[in-house]
Specification:
The complex is a heterodimer. Chain A is an all-beta fold. In chain A, strand 7 and strand 8 form a beta hairpin. In chain A, strands 2, 5, 6, 10, 11 and 12 form a six-stranded mixed sheet that branches. Chain A has a four-stranded antiparallel sheet with strand order 3-9-8-7, with no helix packed on it. A two-stranded antiparallel sheet of chain A has the order 1-4. In chain A, about 0% of the residues lie in helices and about 50% in strands. By secondary structure, chain B is mainly beta. The radius of gyration of chain B is 14 Å and the shape is globular. The chains are: A mainly beta, B mainly beta. Chains A and B meet through strand 6, strand 10 and strand 11 of A and strand 4, strand 5 and strand 9 of B.
Chain lengths: ~120, ~120
């Protein structure tokens, strides 16, 4: 079974600064997808960024980028120019590429990000 | 278009009562997932539907939990004889397609917060 670990329960950053959230995972599979989701107090889970394991290039979405280290099974999220609206719980998630019975997500425990003005 | 909707948003049940939680996925989405999110934790997979077929129910914690999607659209998660440990947020997600190499995004609803007293 796959596991996802987020070792930072809480992080804080000053507005306009950069912050990095950590995530490690354990799997015996070679093909999979990794995600970062954002969950504000409204509870609506929002996809932030996605990485395919077969791609060596790190994914980027505007101010959000990842550092994907496949050999180390590490998948960190970097938020640049942090904004007050970035404050939320962030979850790292794993999905097998070849799970024939569906595409369930396995989530980490989450990191609560606070953005200070 | 409309996103995933869930009702009710909040539910308080006395221990031993039965509850039914509803999920309306995005129109045309084949796959539907239920997750359980305990306070301060990441969501955990409960069950998965592809159209009306329940292809994976391995995450259901006990036989008190039952899910259905009879016409391949709306889904209901039923919990019989609720216990205090059932208190959690129940999230529903839908996607265009299920397993395989294409990582169709899972779109989440706002969740139902169940409190068992």
């Amino acid at each position: 079974a796959q596991t996802v670990t987020q070792s930072q329960p809480e992080m804080s950053v000053q507005e306009a600064e950069t912050v990095t959230l950590s995530c490690t995972y354990d799997t015996s599979e070679s093909d999979y997808y990794l995600f970062w989701y954002k969950q504000p107090p409204s509870r609506q889970m929002i996809l932030v960024i996605r990485q395919e394991a077969y791609k060596q290039q790190n994914a980027t979405e505007n101010r959000f980028s990842v550092n994907f280290q496949k050999a180390a099974k590490s998948f960190s999220l970097k938020i640049s120019d942090s904004q007050l609206g970035d404050a939320a719980m962030y979850f790292c998630a794993y999905r097998s590429a070849w799970e024939t019975s569906g595409s369930r997500l396995t989530f980490g425990e989450g990191t609560q990000l606070t953005v200070n003005p | 278009g409309a996103g995933v909707s869930q009702s009710p948003r909040y539910k308080v049940a006395k221990r031993g009562q039965d509850v039914a939680l509803r999920c309306d996925p995005i129109s045309g989405h084949v796959s539907l997932f239920w997750y359980q999110q305990a306070l301060g934790q990441g969501p955990e997979f409960l069950t998965y539907f592809q159209n009306e077929a329940q292809l994976d129910k391995s995450g259901l914690p006990s036989d008190r939990f039952f899910a259905e999607r009879p016409e391949g659209s709306v889904s209901t998660l039923k919990i019989q004889r609720t216990q205090q440990e059932d208190s959690a947020v129940y999230l529903c997600a839908s996607s265009l397609q299920g397993g395989g190499p294409t990582p169709h995004e899972q779109y989440f609803g706002p969740g139902t917060r169940l409190t068992v007293t």
